[in-house]
Amino acid sequence: MTSRERLLASWSGSGYDHPPLCAWCFGFRAPPHLRWQRDGREVRYWYTLRLEHIHTLPQPWDLEDDFRRVRAWRSIGLDDLVDVSVPWGRDPRVSWRDAELPPAGAEAYPVLLREYDTPSGPLRHAVRRTGEDPGEGWVVQPPRVPLIEDFNIPRAVEHLVREPGQVAAVAHLYREPDPDQRRAFGERLRSVRAFAREQAVAVQAWSAFGMDAMVWFMGVEGAIFLALDQPDAFTELFRIVSRADAGRTELAAADPGVDLIVERGWYSSTDLWSPALLDRYLFPHIAEMSAIAHRHGKKFAYVMTTGVRQLGERLIEAGVDVLYFVDPVQDGLPAEQARELFGGRITLAGGLNSTTLVGSSSAEVRESVSQALDALAPTGRFILQPVDALHPDTPWEAFREAIESWRLWKQAG
């Protein structure tokens, strides 16, 4: 089987030659023999273009780097995918001003400020610039306040949306891609399709934010309180998000080079939201996005690292084909229990937490890999994958042990 054929089989349960091993990279420090040169400098840390619209990387990373990462992983037998992130549009009538305010009074840090003028009124987004050094390889805080950025949430002085009267203005900042973005996305996909055909690898497109966008726009507490205290305003904001997500998903799913549509849900589990709110908002949204993907003959994946035991059945009902992730550490869901609950009805990726690779012995890594494969590989719908990525502090030696354990398991099977 080619890598693409193996992943397609794992997503559908049609029968693979062996369970794939994939590894997303979030600043992974690659071993010297797998690195390449860029502009005369060695590329030591690996990323993915999944991150391009939502994080600030400490080094350049473009489509050619994604291609080189895929080739490197494939050279040692792993199954990698090309990631594409679908852009979102902005009303051309919107303008904004950026500023940096010095520390004042009780505020110990400079404050980055972005003020928007929209046809539905002004919006103001203010975030502390904390300036800490996260260490080599980790994403960094940008020198401005982008609309969507994880650094914004805990450092916010003022979130983008703080009251119901500001909701309508968000529709001018987060909307479906405009014609220029659609053309640019199509041009990128032409390059991706050519590479994917040449290398026989799959392509996954990240096209929807769902409830995660609510947290980016309002912060955790603000989003939850708005849902409870002002449900009409929350519903309207989520409708704005869903409309933009649907446009992004339609664009990606319609492209013949895309194999898998992905919606992220790192902020969309029972850690933050009650089951009642998830039933009211999230699962209908997922069902809408999965229906778009399926209408175009594509599979649909959802990312959720906690709450899988409680919400997995609802994800299946909503049309999710692939679940990133099942995690025996972060979510406390052993592989055997995941098989009993969901085995064969949805593709499960994971089984190995990335922290296991940081602090465990070789024997513990081997045992974790074997337990996951023994329990879930026979379902025909399992992808062995560190949850949720390889990071700058993930030692190559430990991941190499996981790779070797996977190889030995394949040979024994």
Topology:
Elements: H1 3-12, E1 28-29, E2 37-38, E3 41-42, E4 45-46, H2 63-75, E5 81-85, E6 95-101, E7 111-118, E8 121-128, H3 152-155, E9 156-158, H4 167-170, H5 179-199, E10 202-208, H6 211-229, H7 231-253, E11 260-263, H8 275-295, E12 299-303, H9 308-317, E13 322-326, H10 335-342, E14 347-353, H11 356-359, H12 362-376, E15 382-387, H13 396-412
Helix pairs in contact: 6-7, 7-8, 8-9, 10-12, 12-13
CATH architecture type of the largest domain: Alpha-Beta Barrel
Question: Ends: how far apart?
Answer: 17 Å
SS class: alpha/beta
Average predicted confidence as pLDDT: 97
Radius of gyration: 21 Å
Structure summary, number of beta strands = 15
Would you kindly provide a written description of the structure presented here, covering whatever features stand out?
This protein is of the alpha/beta class. It has helices at 3-12, 63-75, 152-155, 167-170, 179-199, 211-229, 231-253, 275-295, 308-317, 335-342, 356-359, 362-376, 396-412; strands spanning 28-29, 37-38, 41-42, 45-46, 81-85, 95-101, 111-118, 121-128, 156-158, 202-208, 260-263, 299-303, 322-326, 347-353, 382-387. It has 2 domains: 3-89 and 174-412, TIM Barrel (Alpha-Beta Barrel); 95-143 and 156-162, no CATH class. The longest helix is centred in the middle third of the chain and has 23 residues, at 231-253. It is globular. The model has no long low-confidence stretch (mean pLDDT 97).
